[in-house]
Amino acid sequence: MQIDNISRVRNFGRSVAVEIGALEDSFLDRGRPLGAARVLNAIGLGYQNLSELRTILKLDTGLLSRLLRSLEAEGLIETNPNPADKRSRVTRLTEAGEKEFGIYEQLSNERAANILERHKDARRLLDAMDIVTVALSRENIVFEEMDYTSDLATKCLNAFAAELSKRLKVEFDLKKSGDPGLSQMKQPLGTFVVARLGDFPVGCVGVKGNGGALAEIKRMWIAPAARGLGLAHQLMTSAEKAACALGIKTLRLDTNSTLFEAISLYRKMGWTEIDRFNDDPYPDVFFEKHL
Amino acid sequence: MQIDNISRVRNFGRSVAVEIGALEDSFLDRGRPLGAARVLNAIGLGYQNLSELRTILKLDTGLLSRLLRSLEAEGLIETNPNPADKRSRVTRLTEAGEKEFGIYEQLSNERAANILERHKDARRLLDAMDIVTVALSRENIVFEEMDYTSDLATKCLNAFAAELSKRLKVEFDLKKSGDPGLSQMKQPLGTFVVARLGDFPVGCVGVKGNGGALAEIKRMWIAPAARGLGLAHQLMTSAEKAACALGIKTLRLDTNSTLFEAISLYRKMGWTEIDRFNDDPYPDVFFEKHL
DNA sequence: GCATTTATCTGACTTTAGTCAGATAAATCG
DNA sequence: CGATTTATCTGACTAAAGTCAGATAAATGC
Lengths: 291, 291
Prior knowledge:
The structure is a homodimer. By secondary structure, chain A is α+β, with helices and mostly antiparallel strands.
């Protein structure tokens, strides 16, 4: 059985390697060697100082230097001393470089679109890809306090509302759900924590305070692709930590019995069930934890 | 939305590329260049004649020749003229080569196991990987008539029984299900068709005949990872074709109303619903098609 | 201020990968 | 049988990738 699972992973690797090889081949069509193309793309993606480039591309100082020289000769990049530390240097795309980078982006997009077009309904495939993506790069997930109006936070909140609607089998309306006071999930009263993988939101949680010792946990959500990784635990931990930093002594939360995974987590993390403390229509289970 | 989907695919590609790169790096630790390692592995996997090796590894005649020479010099392979056509040559691993190939296999297995070990419950990840594997290499799926006692067919039949048990919410027992006559799904009375991707079974269907003009379709199953690709349609087509070749004029089948995807397919493919033609406990819908 | 460290560059070099034009030998075609 | 085709090999070459030992200049430590 274990051996069988290993061969499933290896079959997966083989089939994906073919796609990746094809993408790299298409990069060669731009006339420049793969090494130079990779550097150009990394710069386009925002890796601009040389040491960073060396790390992510695993290049020797000499090799990177020469590749940069060749891109400069093509007029695609410009390298200047870093004003903050003139030993080191930063590089950036010229206008021509931006254009060339755009063409590589186009090639990548076409390859990706091509995969999707081979499927009438690609939803299943995309969901599967997300699960793999998150699983393989879970160590790159970062937890950040950010404003709940930010782009990432908004995506989380919308996904949260959509899922709750589905799970509770009613049209869940964020405005009706008993906290018009989103602004209380903002420094200095409270906070909002987002877990993200690059630009992809994978989870969120809000701490809604009122300046006193008692605050509420709201809007705990984990992206479907990111479940089963223990992310909720990490997210709750960082929310509790952030609450502590705000001087909060006791946290409360309400939830719905449909959300059984969450409830089991709260118990595991030392929360205790308490009596109903509000008259919102959606929640039917209530918890409390002293920090 | 479409743009968002493309970036999901690209994020996926990036995260998997890292894993694949790491595997190739670990191959380099064996001291020999990647080109030679790839040839050795391809030979170990059974690609033994040179033209085949050139095709799958996309190598120039000269380059492959030299790589083989270097593996020979290491004593890992042995190349001999093909007795059937002495212009061409076949190569195979020596004992030392088998051993070295085993080490590469070990490295690959460890990488794969390592991914699985990072997950308490890897089932979700494995299922997702299977979906991606099948989707990306669907053009490599082959349909083959084979004996229902073969290894692949047995895997299909077991999976079929397991799933039916789950869908019908009863313990489904193949022996009770109204066809002790598995032997009728065998030439010359009938046949059994398996769809596979390499060594992985992705679907099956049986034609159970009795030498007359009337036969039955049995055991139609598609692996969960392979659903939504139109595989069932292809499978049914090949079953009908095989039935024709056996001189069968009319096909019947029974099924259960729980299996709604299958039922919708039968209608689409020109089957018409008919009255119950047996008294098996499980089926409750019956179809017929004149070939 | 001077030695040391850090970040990068350059030149010289090796290895790996890839290309191409014959050479060779077996098979095939007419 | 002789011409042609097919499969592979070899030599000669180029391009790309990777390594390493200084050189240089800015920053840092004492």
